[in-house]
Amino acid sequence: MLAFANAKINLGLNLTEKRSDGFHNLETIFYPVKINDVIELVDSEETLCIIKGIEIPGNVDENICLKAFKVLQKDFNLPHQKLILLKNIPVGAGLGGGSSDAAFLIKLVNEKFNLSLSKSQMERYARSLGADCAFFIKNEPVFAYAKGDEFEDMELRLTNHFLVLVKPPIHVSTASAYADVKVRQPITSLKKLIHLPLKDWRAHIFNDFEPSVFAKHPQIEEIKAKLYDADATFALMSGSGSSVFGIFENPVKLQELELENLVFYNV
Ligand SMILES: C[C@](O)(CO)[C@H](O)COP(=O)(O)OP(=O)(O)OC[C@H]1O[C@@H](n2ccc(N)nc2=O)[C@H](O)[C@@H]1O
Ligand SMILES: Nc1ncnc2c1ncn2[C@@H]1O[C@H](COP(=O)(O)OP(=O)(O)OP(=O)(O)O)[C@@H](O)[C@H]1O
């Protein structure tokens, strides 16, 4: 049985408060993008994880897919499974790949073993694995707040636009990016600002990770500038980086982009 775990981008990210538990309250818009990892569950003599595709730093036994499976195993009598992960989503990219793998693994186990878990029950399991994970249960554009794990539905479709995603060869660790940020209370909530016309986003919608990540990695800021040079209506780093996306109103001429490490181009 297979699952296709897609990535996300953050259309704006305000870090509003450092919490007493060490996490940060934030507001963001999660927007799913069609670049997928593939997860397969196969009956097996023992529970293990096999990774193909892009290399993931760290030990395979620490893979978040395995963690997600074990969390469910505690509550349900699940038989051993081989978890095969084909990794296509760049790692350390702010694209939520690991978080998506965990959420889609939960959905896959729910389906394969007829656990009859509701969406909110699956969200609860996902939330225990990482702040970004819960979003991928629903996997539709949402306004997210608190740790990024509470949601309000929203109507936002970028259809009729063109999305370019660039992932430079830089790994930004989420935890270290959070250690470097400055929090600020925005004057106007992103929930309101996102309804401005796309042409006005550049002046009003920000990612609060950009200043500190750009200071360490000027190459990421250069990519953003190149996307604007190429006529993007809006460009922003996703999550804690290092990937940057550009939203275009007209089809982009790839030849004119002069960007390496282009990973995604879609309507
Ligand atoms: C940057 C984003 O991708 C934006 O969507 C997310 O906030 C990251 O979420 P994530 O990768 O699921 O993060 P987690 O695995 O839960 O946490 C990794 C580390 O990031 C920090 N962290 C994460 C989420 C949050 N709201 N505040 C934090 O301070 C914590 O130090 C935590 O130990
Ligand atoms: N299935 C997985 N996919 C990607 N990374 C994973 C996975 N399982 C564990 N990891 C660990 O998570 C780290 C990547 O997380 P990090 O937060 O730095 O990057 P990210 O691109 O923002 O991804 P995410 O939002 O999924 O956490 C990897 O270096 C690896 O150690």
Q: Can you describe this structure?
A:
- The chain is α+β, with helices and mostly antiparallel strands and 267 residues long.
- It has 2 domains: 2-153, Ribosomal Protein S5, domain 2, CATH 3.30.230; 162-266, GHMP kinase, C-terminal domain (Alpha-Beta Plaits), CATH 3.30.70.
- Helix content is 31%, strand content 29%.
- Strands 1, 2, 3, 4, 5 and 6 form a 6-stranded mixed sheet that branches. A 4-stranded antiparallel sheet has the order 8-9-7-10.
- A hairpin with a 6-residue loop joins strand 8 (234-237) and strand 9.
- Helix 1 (64-75) runs parallel beside helix 2, helix 2 (97-112) crosses helix 3 and helix 8 (210-216) crosses helix 9 (218-229).
- The mean pLDDT is 95.
- The protein binds 4-diphosphocytidyl-2-C-methyl-D-erythritol and adenosine-5'-triphosphate.
- Residues 10, 13, 22-24, 26, 28, 94, 96, 99, 130-133, 147-148, 174-175, 178, 239-240 line the site of 4-diphosphocytidyl-2-C-methyl-D-erythritol.
- It comes from Pedobacter insulae.
- Keywords: ATP-binding, Isoprene biosynthesis, Kinase, Nucleotide-binding, Transferase.
